[in-house]
C-alpha cells in the first residue's frame, strides 16, 4: 500500500531528498500549460459552434441571466427542469465578474466580447486540467507517455472543438481529467476521496452519466481491500468522497430550487428523461444512429490516436504476460485500470440508439491516455537493442520511418481537419459584425432565422436589444421560445426561470407560436448553396434583391457538391487541384430589408 499522507496534506506530494535529473522526454509543466493554452485559445477564437444545443441550452439562458432576455428551450420549463441553472449561473457570474475590469478601463464593451471572453476562459480552465493530468502521468507512469498525451490532445480536431465548448459534456471532461489524475497519483497517499469528489462534481454540475467513468477505480479499490484486508480505511475514503459529492449536490439543489421555485434535483431529472422515458418521449425522438457512429466519428476526430487507444489494453496484456518486461512504473493491475474507462464509455454509448459527437467529450482524456500508453509500448519494443529479439536486427532508418510516417500523417490529418472545419463553417461567427456599426441596427429590431436557425451563434453576437426571431422553414419540430420578461414585483428575481412558458412540450411537437411573420424582420440570416434547391418555405432570400440587400456575406461549404475528401479535410483552392476534389462554395449572408421595402410596409 502507499505510505500515509504527509503532514502538509494529500494534495502535496512528499519532497524528494534531492532534485533528480529530468528524463529527456519530459516538458516542464508550465511549458505544457502554454502549449495547451495556446491550442485551446486558438480554438476559442476560431472554432465554429458545432451543436445548436450549446447555443439554445447554455448561451441563451446565460444571456438571459446577464441581459434580461434570451431564447428558452423546453428543457428550462419548470415542468421539466432538466437543465441546471447552477451550471448556467456559474458561467454568467464568470462573464459578469471577468468583464468588470475590462469595462472599467474602457475595453470590450460589446456583448460579442463577453462571448469570446467566456470561450477563452473555458479554454484556459481546460488547459489547467490538461496540465495537471500531464504532470501526474509523467510522474506516475512515464515521461514519454505524458509527452504523447500532449500530442494526442493538441493535434486532435476532437479536442479542438471540445476544449472551449460551453457544454456540460465539456465541463465533465474537465472534471474527468482531475478525477483521473487524483486516482492515478498515489505519491502522497491513496486519493480515492479526491477522485470521487472530482467525478462527483462532473456528475452533479456537468453530466450525470460521467459517473460511470469512476467504476474501474472503485473496482480497483475493492480489489486492493480483498488483498490487504484494510476495509476500514477503504470505507473511510469512500465515505469521504461520497460526502463531498453529496455536499455539492445539496448546494446545487438549493440553487435550482431558488431558480425554479420548486424543489428540483436536476441530475435525477436528466437521468429520468434520458433513461426512463419511452414512446413519444426521450432522446431517441431526436434521431438515432447505427452502432458504428462513434467509431467513424472518433476515427475522424482523432485518426491514428483513436486506433492506438483501442489497442492499449491488448498491448498492455501482451507486454506484461508475454514479453514480461515492464515499460512503465505501474503494475499490470494499475495499467489495466488506467485504460479501462475509455473502453467502458465507448461501450456504454455505442449501444445507445441516440448518438451525438459531444457525448464522447468526457472520454477524450481517457482516449488520449490510452493512445499515449499504446504508442509508448510500441516504441519501447521497436527500439529494443536486445540481440535475442528479431526487432533489434531492423536498421535504425527503417525503424525511424515506421514510427515517423504514421505520426506525421496523423499530424497532417489533424491539422487539415481542423483548418478544413474552420474555413468551411465559420461564416455564422463572422456575418453579424455590421449590426454593431453605428446606424445599422437599433433596439427593437429583429434578426430573423429561417432554414439557418440551428447555426445561430447566440444573442451575444447581436447588439443590445436586437432580438433573434424564427420564421417558418421546412423544420417541423419544436423551436425555442423566449424567457419571460414580466415584472414579477416582489415574487423573486429572474421570473423567466420559474414562470411556466406556453407552447412547450417534451415530444418535439411543433408550436406555431414560436414563429414571427417575415414582415416583422428588419434583418434575415440566409444561405444560398447551389447544391440545395430553394423551396416555398425556404426561398433564396439572397437572390431576392427586390426586398433584401446583403450587409455581409461569407463563404460557406456546399456539402452536397463537395467530394468526401474535401469535406473531411482542408483542400486548398489551388489551380493544380483536380476539379472533383476542390471544395464547392455557397454564400452565408446577413441581409437587410431594403429602404424602399420598409417604406412600402409602413405606408
TrEMBL record:
Look up the record and report any one GO term of the cellular component aspect: endoplasmic reticulum membrane
Q: Which GO terms describe its molecular function?
A: alpha-1,2-mannosyltransferase activity
What membrane topology does the annotation report for this chain? Answer: Multi-pass membrane protein
* Keyword set includes Phosphoprotein: no
Q: Where in the cell is it found?
A: Endoplasmic reticulum membrane
Name the record gives this protein? Mannosyltransferase
Pathway per its UniProt entry is: Protein modification; protein glycosylation
| Predominant place of localization | endoplasmic reticulum
Q: What is the lineage of its organism?
A: Eukaryota, Fungi, Dikarya, Ascomycota, Pezizomycotina
- Does the keyword Cytoplasm feature in the UniProt annotation? no
Identify which top EC class this enzyme belongs to.
transferase
Locate the transmembrane regions by residue number: 31-49, 85-104, 116-134, 141-160, 196-219, 304-323, 332-351, 363-383
Q: Which species is this UniProt entry from?
A: Didymella pomorum
Keyword vocabulary terms for this entry: Endoplasmic reticulum, Glycosyltransferase, Membrane, Transferase, Transmembrane, Transmembrane helix
Name the family.
Belongs to the glycosyltransferase 22 family.
Catalytic activity, EC: 2.4.1.-
User: What are its GO biological-process terms?
Assistant: protein N-linked glycosylation
